[in-house]
Design goal:
Residues 1-5 have low confidence and may be disordered. The protein has helices at residues 21-24, 32-47, 52-55, 66-88, 100-107, 114-133, 137-141, 153-175; strands at residues 143-146, 149-152. It has eight helices and two strands.
């Protein structure tokens, strides 16, 4: 019986499609659990003070609103966590991709409050942390197919952190300056 990993080590580039390097490279620490916890607080601090008016802001025509960006972060983390679960449990059934713009449109995030979307973010993030805290080294290294690409469970965990950071930076630079 293997023991629980004290941390999930950074994935090797061979464990994921090169596309995901854009997210994984943003994660500068090897303590991914602490990173996810810290990010949750940073995102809550950043978005918790956004006014109702600012939550509807789009920095350019055709771009998502602040609410839609947060809804996208939520949807993506939920989907990626599901992928981690399936792959870590040894499920070799290929996992389909998803179209982010269709999810944002279907999410109707403008009907919701920022507080509600932030509460959902915190709930999803806490569930993600609970899932990964109980992955041992063997299960974290398991690979599966998601969106027609081979990827390890631990690579997806790093994608989750990098994806959230990527969008938080966009929020800081283009929406909330």
């Amino acid at each position: 019986m293997s023991t629980l990993a004290t941390s999930i080590h950074r994935p090797a580039p061979a464990e994921y499609d090169p596309y995901y390097e854009r997210y994984i490279s943003l994660v500068k620490t090897d303590d991914i659990t602490a990173t996810l916890q810290k990010q949750a607080q940073q995102t809550r601090d950043l978005l918790g003070k956004v006014s109702s008016e600012k939550a509807e802001f789009r920095y350019a025509s055709g771009k998502w609103s602040v609410k839609e960006v947060l809804g996208h972060i939520n949807d993506t983390e939920r989907i990626m966590s599901y992928r981690v679960l399936r792959i870590a449990r040894g499920d070799q059934t290929p996992i389909e991709g998803y179209e982010q713009d269709d999810y944002v449109t279907g999410g109707k995030f403008s009907r919701r409050t920022m507080d509600d979307l932030l509460q959902e973010f915190m709930t999803i993030r806490n569930a993600t942390i609970q899932l990964i805290r109980h992955l041992d080294a063997e299960t974290a290294e398991r690979r599966g197919t998601a969106n027609n690409k081979q990827i390890s469970a631990r690579a997806i965990v790093y994608v989750i952190a990098g994806h959230e950071l990527h969008h938080r930076r966009i929020l800081e630079e283009k929406y909330l300056q």
